[in-house]
Design a protein that fits this description.
Structural class: mainly alpha
Largest sheet: none
Radius of gyration: 18 Å
Distance between the termini: 28 Å
Number of helices: 6
Helix content: 55-70%
Strand content: under 5%
Order of helices and strands: HHHHHH
Length: about 170
């Protein structure tokens, strides 16, 4: 169904590839992610421009470490390190709370997506509000984007409170 790469899913794919001694394919996945960080300033949730407003849990440095331990390419590691600093800056500047902890969220609100995303999220959770005011839609939209960035799938255990799990 999906013809794309997702950030944290790719980490687990790479773990399997490395176990199966397919370090080259795992390295190619990481190279694709490094390219996206270099191009966009962070690793998007997936490798479509649709995902340019959110990321997912930052596993890229762990992936780089595991690839290096499989291939021992110091030149590649040096190049990857300079790009990893870009991703680190993203999380420290764009995802930092006042208390110094990182949090999942999204970059900007896409006004043309609020209704569609809010209604989709509510339908997945079987939640049907009697009144669907704009402020409720914006809150639900924000909440859904938060738990999408967390890598957790939308389901009823969150209802409209995913921010409590970030």
């Amino acid at each position: 169904m999906f013809q794309e790469m997702y950030y944290w899913d790719t980490y687990f794919t790479n773990v399997g590839l490395l176990v199966e001694k397919n370090a080259e394919l795992a390295k190619n996945n990481v190279d694709n992610m490094l390219y996206m960080v270099e191009k966009y300033g962070f690793m998007p949730n997936g490798n479509r421009t649709f995902y340019l407003n959110q990321s997912q849990p930052p596993f890229l440095s762990q992936m780089v470490k595991e690839i290096y331990e499989a291939v021992y390419d110091k030149e590649w590691l040096t190049s990857a390190y300079s790009i990893l600093k870009i991703e680190y800056s993203f999380w420290q500047e764009k995802r930092m709370l006042q208390n110094g902890l990182n949090s999942y969220t999204g970059h900007e609100i896409k006004e043309d997506s609020i209704d569609r995303i809010a209604e989709y999220g509510l339908s997945r959770m079987g939640y049907k509000p009697k009144v669907f005011k704009d402020e409720i839609k914006r809150t639900i939209y924000s909440e859904i984007r938060s738990f999408c960035e967390s890598g957790w799938d939308c389901n009823s255990r969150f209802l409209e409170k995913p921010h409590e799990f970030n």
